[in-house]
# Entry
Amino acid sequence: MEQFQIETAQNISIDQNTAHLGERMLAYLIDTVIIVIYYVLMIWLLLALDVDAGDQWAIFMVAGLPAFLYYLVLETFMDGKTIGKHLMQLRVVKLDGSKPDFSSYFMRWILRIVDISISSGGVAVFTILMRGKGQRVGDIAAGTTIISEKKRVFLKDTLLRELPDDYVPQFSQVTVFTDREMGTIKDLYDKAKRNGDHNVILSLSIRIKKVTQITNTMQPIDFLDVVIKDYSYYTQQL
# Structure
């Protein structure tokens, strides 16, 4: 599963998992089955109603609009999801992690002609495999990708640090960070500490102080350790 980076409101880069090609294909198959079933039921109903042959085509075109607009309508009103994507826990998002607007969904939808219809999906598969952000042609034009929302274990469910019962936090400002942001901070800190990379620790310390407006004279390595412990403390209180 590939990743791309999102810049958060606190100017911290975090990794976001793009959907695996197999997941996207399965979601597509589910949506295709739904569309085919709709068409079959519609044709059956037209035959059952014994509509005049001259009117059947016009009725078929009008009744077929929901299937024709399936992806555009559902992604627009289901927050970037179709039924297939919902079942596979996938979602369309902008590359910065924000919600796409209608023009983005429209661009993805109209370029399905190139990605899937004309090439039988060949262009989409090739582009997704070649691009590092899981994008087909429609995604590239719209500035979107599809992410996986498979359940993750959040930091509140696993202790960042073991804390004594009488632990007293020093920096309440650390609550400005989200679980994911603090996870990134912890990973960078742990890796830099293992590798003896003081520059990373110093840069991380400066960035955190800037975001939280914390002022102290602690050594950067000690400061980061306290920040992580404090966040763990406040998380456990939720």
Q: What stands out?
A: The beta strands are 3-7, 13-17, 90-94, 144-148.
